[in-house]
Design brief:
alpha+beta, Yope Regulator, Chain: A, 23% strand, elongated, YbjN domain-containing protein
Length: 153
């Protein structure tokens, strides 16, 4: 078995989490302090890369897309690990927002500790910014949302 995939499975089994295995990804639902959302562990074929995506439980309407984009850009500005993404191209994923953490593992043995660090950073960041994102998607000015999320006065 691919060592990256094995490290993910070992980590998930160690957490006793239920998950669904697919050819190129593993999916499950995780609950943070601010909600529950799908998480996908993606292992692109023929690479030594692991990407962890949190698919955020928000619908972005065209009316508030600019506000949400501004919120996510402001959030990304100070992040050291990972980034928010929003799909604003016409199509079935329009408005999908996700948070991505990833690591390239060439010449580094995959381990449950690496997987844990990616998951912990991902879930902690989503927890910190999810409430503000939901408010920005409803039209609250992104500046107020980001100030609340980042604890600014």
């Amino acid at each position: 078995m691919d060592p990256v995939r094995q490290a993910v499975l070992d980590y998930l089994d160690g957490q006793s989490w239920d998950y669904d295995e697919h050819d190129t990804f593993i999916g499950l639902n995780l609950a943070g302090q601010t909600g529950e959302w799908p998480v996908v562990f993606f292992m692109p074929p023929d690479t030594e890369v692991l990407i962890v995506y949190s698919i955020l439980p928000v619908e972005v309407s065209p009316e508030w897309a600019r506000n949400v984009s501004s919120y996510l850009t402001a959030a990304n500005f100070g992040l050291s690990i990972g980034s928010f993404e929003v799909d604003l191209a016409a199509g079935p994923r329009y408005g999908e927002v996700r948070y991505r953490t990833s690591v390239e593992l060439r010449d580094v043995p995959p381990s449950t500790a690496i997987v844990r660090n990616l998951v912990d950073a991902n879930v902690a960041t989503v927890d910190a910014y999810l409430s503000g994102l939901l408010e920005a998607a409803q039209g609250r000015p992104f500046e107020s949302c980001i100030a609340d999320a980042e604890g600014a006065d």
